[in-house]
Amino acid sequence: MENIVVLLVGYPGVGKLTISKELTHYMDNVHILDNHMFNNLIFPMADFGSNIIDHPMWKYIRRIKRAVYDFVIEEADKKNSFILTGFFIDDENDIRSYNNIVDLAKQRSATFIPVKLVCDINELMLRVESKVRKDNYKLSDADQLSSLIEKTKSLIQIEHTNKLELDVTNMRADEAAKHIFDHICDRCVRRAKSID
């Protein structure tokens, strides 16, 4: 399999990056474009205060992402696949960001696989509090996560024929990656049959 664009969407702490890393064991020529790869270029310099969602830093982060996406579209070998991660809420900016990834896949003529990762709130609160997360500028406070979930209400609604929604509450990252890979295989087979 080649030229796959996988998008893992979920709340902070759900395991997007950890699952992405596990997923690379199943895929060849795959690159992870984790949301913090972009965010961490700006986060150390930004003073969030209590309002991270509406902070002006996001417009600069979107510009960084756009440059990388343009490279992926225009220059990256079609044999390459990409796993992107993100926390997308149901608002105008995040819907536009999601659509940019859909467009990236379309312009590469890639198979697009959006995966919504869900997790029990109590388990999510346990997962989010780790020193590793904090050291990587990731949200690592359960109270802040609870407030964020309350403020955002819901993740983006994904309507796509290749969508997978996966509850990872009681699942190890390697198990989640296997489920996702099986779904990718299924969708690639269906796409190949539809082309024939």
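Above is the first protein from milestone M3; the second protein from the same milestone is given next.
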Amino acid sequence: MRDNVFSSFSGGMKMAEKIYIIPPSRTRYLAEIAEGIRRYNQWTQAQAKIAQRLYSIAQTIDTLRELPETKSEKSQGVSCNKTGMLLELSMLYDRTIRELEPANQEIIKNWAEKVRAYKAEYFTYKVRDKEIKVETHTESLSRLKSRKFRCPGMKPGEIFYSGI
């Protein structure tokens, strides 16, 4: 009975090699991806905060410019303070805008145009030189048109989280 136990299998060096699904040099690749995503999210939050600060400074400048001057303010030198405050706020705006990435400045600058494009009857975009046209509204059984999607808020800080 013991004679039948022997095998003709000869294990050599060929079998010693392991076949890896993930190469040993890349065992942390998912952790690296997660770290990259965390860094990107932190950067996005920082850029959104800067954009919101710019928006607030611009709103303050507009509000100060719209304020009418009264006689008592002129006699007390308040208009001089108003001019000084406008100058300080303008300088603060210029310093702050340098912190915002140029690509994000373009996103904010073109945001109103993008919203108009999404609100139009068709939204058109290009993929590999092919123009794709998508209806932005749907018609109900009662013939009412309703939008298929809604654009996010218009505050600059919210724009970066929208993904459109």
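Note on the second protein: The CA atoms of residues 71 and 78 lie 10 Å apart.
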